[in-house]
Amino acid sequence: MKGLLRRWRLPAGNGRRHGCGPRYGVPGRAKRLLLSQLFQPFNLQAGDEAGWEGRAGEPTCRSQKLMLQGGLVYPSSPGCYYYLPPAVRAMEKLVKVVDGEMQAVGGQKLNMPSLSSAELWRASGRWDGMGPELFRLADRHGKGYCLAPTHEEAVTELVAAQSNLSYKQLPLRLYQVTRKFRDEPKPRFGLLRSREFYMKDMYTFDTSEEAARQTYDLVCNAYCSLFDRLGLPFVKVRAATGSIGGTVSHEFQLPADIGEDRLLLCPDGHFAANVETLNGERTSCPTCGEKLTRTKGIEVGHTFYLGTKYSSVSNAVFYSPQNKPQLAEMGCYGLGITRILAASIEVLSTEDSIRWPSLIAPYQLCFIPPKRGSKEEEEGVTLLERVYDDLAEALPHLAGDSVLDDRTQLTIGKRLKDANKLGYPYVVVAGKRVCEDPPVFEVWNQNTGEVLFLTKEGVIELLSKVQVP
């Protein structure tokens, strides 16, 4: 009773917490996340039985089906999706990793309006140049806007408005992570080709072409670091500048059969290009003469050296050491945040089981207690909950990354199969050996297929190596 009274002791002061109900749970202990209480409406039946095959005539792909079946996204209208809580968790983790890489190269995060003035786009020539892919609208006063698919015009106007920008303040590297919009004629493949999506876009301003090209290389290297950390098999290829413009451009591609870009690659890494950049047929590497291989790719990043294409329109200038105005040399750098999520699942997963880059999995751990009514139930449930709580205390960074599958009416095998399909990197099971002395738990490493039998201390030691952003 004393312990209970201590739990409900009122805070110091006037002895009341106005308008607040009691605080449930044990002080200092993380609340257990129960699978039955998470908003993740998954349907893990195989094939057509799942009912997630898309609209009639709409092409589908592995990542689209897995994300729908796994309760990660839900279709709203063509090319638009609800991002459900697990997908938002994965996206927020990815953004943290991206933030780290961008800030390591001097990036400063800001946020620009999604509504962009038609006047800006007309000045750059892209109001007409972008064609029907640009979502256009007018306010009640008849003033034209677009829902921005990219923000070169807007960020250049912002920098141009800083009338006393000094060379000492450059390089300037500004980036954001926001929703973007594109009126796709045929949205397809889920988040890989949608009308509304999240993108990280960075815009850089330098004092000279040489400095801008150094920035270009720096950001490209940051992209390489990002994809290496995610464990994704990417290639950097020469690319066309398209509607963005500029004189130098590269794409970061994940090779995949459903990719919409056609790539030519040197097997020794000397040459890589999107075929749209080539004049005529090329069959051998211009450096080593090896036969080029053809593959398809999913574009997940794109970089551009812009020069003064936009700064000359908005008169984005800085003042040199001689106090003379000079046009800033620019670059822009995009990463498809939601496309990376889908493309990761596309290239890492099996046909019926999600596999995440471990760093951005929505949840790192799933705990599976014994089946209700089994001989292991009474002792196994208590011991597994103790592991959950002790792990949360010993490794607090994993406290919010652990899910307890409390659907104990199902067998361990059924829940383990579901956990495999949902892609938790680690699954801890209280199976038959949980009643041994000391208790032994099964730990499944989903990404390697390895199964270990460990005591509570062994479980905590193993999972201490797990990283979260």
Describe this structure in words.
This protein is α+β, with helices and mostly antiparallel strands. It has twelve helices and 22 strands. It has helices spanning 2-7, 62-69, 85-104, 118-124, 126-129, 152-160, 209-230, 311-314, 337-348, 377-394, 412-422, 456-463, and strands at residues 33-34, 73-77, 80-83, 108-109, 115-117, 135-138, 144-147, 172-181, 196-206, 235-238, 248-255, 261-265, 272-274, 293-307, 317-319, 325-327, 329-336, 365-368, 402-404, 426-429, 441-445, 450-454. Strands 4, 8, 9, 10, 11, 12, 13, 14 and 17 form a nine-stranded mixed beta sheet that branches. A six-stranded mixed beta sheet has the order 1-19-18-20-21-22, with helices on both faces. Strand 15 (317-319) and strand 16 form a beta hairpin. Helix 2 crosses helix 9 (337-348) and helix 3 packs across helix 7. The chain is elongated and about 80 Å long.
Which key terms come to mind for this protein?
nine-stranded mixed β-sheet, alpha+beta, 28% helix, elongated, six-stranded mixed β-sheet, 12 helices, disordered N terminus, 22 strands, 469 residues
In short:
This protein has 469 residues and is of the alpha+beta class.
Distance between the termini: 41 Å
Query: How much strand content do the residues show?
Result: 15-25%
The tally of strands reads: 22
- How many helices? The count is 12
| Helix content class | 25-40%
Major pleated sheet: 9 strands, mixed
Low confidence ranges: 1-17, 21-25, 46-53
Mean pLDDT rating: 91
Taking Cα atoms only, what radius of gyration do you get, to the nearest Å? 26 Å
General shape: elongated
Assign the structural class, choosing from mainly alpha, mainly beta, alpha/beta, alpha+beta, or little secondary structure. Answer: alpha+beta
